[in-house]
Amino acid sequence: MHFGAHIRLNRSSRTPSYRVGGLLGGVALLCFVPLFPPIIGASAQVVPDTAPTRQEGSPTKDPSKDPTGDPTKTAPSTPSATQPFPDDPRLAVALTMLSKGALEEARQTAHTVLVARSDCDRAAAIEGIALNKLKRYEEAKPLLLRARDSKQAFPEQKHAAHFLGWCHYHLGELALAKAAFDLHLLGTPKEPDSTFGLGLIALAEDQLDQADAHFAAALEGFSKPRDRPVDRARVLTRQADVALRRDDVVGAEAFLRRAVEASAVQHETWSKLARVYDRQAKTKEADAARANADRILTALGRKPATDASTSTAPAVVPPGTTTDEAPPSVNPPQPKR
Q: What is the pTM of this model?
């Protein structure tokens, strides 16, 4: 997403951000086993001002037992940012670093500014965003709380609640995460990534109808006015999770096939598709999907190369399609705002 209309900051993954880094660009060179027609026209995306980069993962704690949250801020309230804000030219450098995925360098630059100018809430916000992207959620929280409640009208202030929501979510503080996403949506209605976050919370709480509604709204937001295929794939994968909670294996397969068509380089989608095929005794399809997941993890350096991950699994190719087209290239993670 752009802050001030010129910079795009990242997730992720966040997405477990599943938006993968530059390393995954190499996946496009790998020999994927196509299960579906190749995706055509996927390219680097420009993230608009109102679309923060999403993150995703599994909550790990009971929010009622977490003493580090901010219980006074569980209900959304819109801070009035009215005062001029102290700034520093080094923060523009930090934002450029974030846009290029240099998260630690961006954090250090913002921290240097904050040490020199302790009144600069914008520096706190940028450092908090960088820490969020580095998955250092506990460290990010106080900085993002400060940015959220700031009265200084710096560009990133209205999105601090969004990043704070992902910190709470990844720390298992679901009630605080929901309040943060709700607050962000007050200022940026229908913003799809905070809506997606609400869907994940509803899914974690087994509120399947609410999860359906939030995911459908997020999918629409990621589809127009500008298509964001990687984000659509993430939502479709979670819609498959809802279908599986309802024991709808056929429906889950349909969602996962659509997710692969949107973005063929999400290893989680391939892994889930393999398990869905296993449940339907579609052995060849399951083997091919599992091989694709292994190739992605190997390209990411998260799985050692083995014969199984480098060999060609049985292909299941729809009639009339070719087998020699590589999957779409993957954008490096763009630290947003």
A: 0.70
